[in-house]
Amino acid sequence: MAKSKQIIVRIKGFKFPNIGIGINPETGEKIQVKRALPGQLVEIIAKKGKGRILNVQERAANEVSPLCPNVNNCGGCTFQTLTYEDELVLKKQMVLDLLDKAGIELPESGDCIEIRPAPNIYGYRNKMEFSFGDECRDGLLALGLRAPGSYYEVCDGALCNICHEDFNKIVACTREFFRERAASFYHRTRKIGHLRHLVIRRGEYTGDILVNLVTTEGLDVSGFAEALLGIGLEGHIRGIIHTLNSSVADIVRPDHVGLLYGDDFFYDNCLGLKFKIYPFSFFQTNTKGAESLYTTVSEFAGAGTGDAGDIFDLYCGTGTIAQILSNRARKVYGIEIVESAVIAARENAELNAIENCEFIAGDVNRETLELLTQQGASPDVIVVDPPRDGVHPKSIEPIISFGAKKIIYVSCKPTSLVRDLEVFLERGYKLTELRMHDMFPRSYHVETVALLQKV
Known about the structure:
Layout: E1 5-15, E2 19-23, E3 30-34, E4 41-47, E5 50-58, H1 84-101, E6 113-116, E7 127-134, E8 141-146, E9 154-156, H2 165-180, E10 195-202, E11 208-215, H3 224-229, E12 236-244, E13 256-262, E14 266-270, E15 273-277, H4 287-301, E16 310-314, H5 320-325, E17 331-336, H6 339-351, E18 357-361, H7 366-374, E19 379-384, H8 393-400, E20 406-411, H9 414-426, E21 429-437, E22 447-454
């Protein structure tokens, strides 16, 4: 059995997701170190080609002083110590390296490959999911983002700089409210305690705020809504809900949802359209970044009103892309497996007086796509915006069988994108444009839009 060893390594490279690459000075072999940046000299515990950072002995030459006081303890951000320009370079190269390794031919013109920066580097997130825990074993109740590799320790969420200051004020108020009442967080192994998560959503353009307190059963939350409503905020609280979750899994899953105040939804705008968003609706977490992303999708789809013919929006969620493309298409068909999202998509289309969008509840598979064929749908453009794991292998062939002139693949995980692109390219499509969008500054995540055209 291989033994772990303490060594010092200079980080030479970087790859997705968030992994620094160095050379083991004793064996000459590559070693992967999570959360290490190129140029750093790190002391690590190494085993089987992987390393865990003990401390950073030398910072990289391009590192700067971070603005976040939790930079060394928080599991949320990755690039708080890099200039934003260097962060963009790293993200772009990370995607290109994956494409190169897979042997995927890039567009001939270098102008067709770019990364677009986020409109805002700080305060950009419209949704944050904070966890209850403690900052040290048996310490005071804490509320924030989890420390790396920890189930219970969290960093102070009232200091987070990637969300609006309203979030921080709500976190601080919630933490003090439950500290005063000696409430405890839910301990998964002991199965004791109540407090689990606090999910806050805020409309970028409307200032609407929706607060979702997630607990196990049996916690007295009387007075909580009144406490939040007494905070001086730039935005305004539209609704406060209480979600009960008895699952052992560390996820926000609703067994029961109760309303403590106001509405169970909020509104926000995107590219001039209005969207009604429910507690568990998918809506891009960077609204202004999403506008840039969706503008790219719109450009790739077609130039003018109705020019794009029929469009399929697969994995459409609450229909954001479908509605944005509606003025470029004869008709847009959206498919989404989450029925509540389909209901919200129809509601939002009505809200925006859009009549040429049809939303269907179902999985993106042969059976559902055949229903569209029976309706006479013939797509010129197919937009694919799958979850992180990408398109299911059994779904790719039915998508290709439509023979659409264009397939626009929107990806939030480069490794899934590369895997699926290989199939599309083998089956008669060519990659003609590739545009990355930084939707999540200070993290390693990057959104990629690939335009595939039928050869």
